[in-house]
Amino acid sequence: MQDDEGTQFHDATTNGACLGKDHRSWDETISAISCFLRNSFHESISSSPYHAVFGMDMITHASSYPLLLSLNLLNEPFSLSKDDRMQLCRRNLRHRIREPHERNRRQNDLRSRPQTFQNFSAKLSPMFINARVREKSGNYYYILENLQGKFDGTYHAKDIRP
């Protein structure tokens, strides 16, 4: 499951191409589909998932080994150990994944309005206060006092909890 809708469409199109017209035989082509998904280029990480995990491109068929060996592509001399290369690769991936996240965060921050609360916010106050009914004022209104006998206000009956 990709975040990018274009990538989802591309993956779905490729899956459909691998399956052909008869989708009941999906289990026969599952290896081709999974190979495609592991090797497809992801823009967010600027590499394929296989390359991101293992640090090299995936060899899809054994007949490719003699050619790669003759071209000396399998035994590339590196000055860094494999652990160091993988650590650099993961650091690079974190950076590449963080960039779109920050870009989306900045865009979403533009949409939200900053809220500041000054002095008092009823939203943050307690739902109910302890009070006694001082007197009834009309059909549905009551004048309340706190437990010390101080005037608390006039409240509608729907706002009073027994």
From TrEMBL:
Organism of this sequence: Stomoxys calcitrans
GO molecular function: nucleic acid binding
Gene3D superfamilies: Ribonuclease H-like superfamily/Ribonuclease H
Protein name (database record): Uncharacterized protein
Biased composition, class Basic and acidic residues, residue ranges: 99-112
Region feature (Disordered): 97-116
InterPro entries tied to this protein: RNaseH_sf
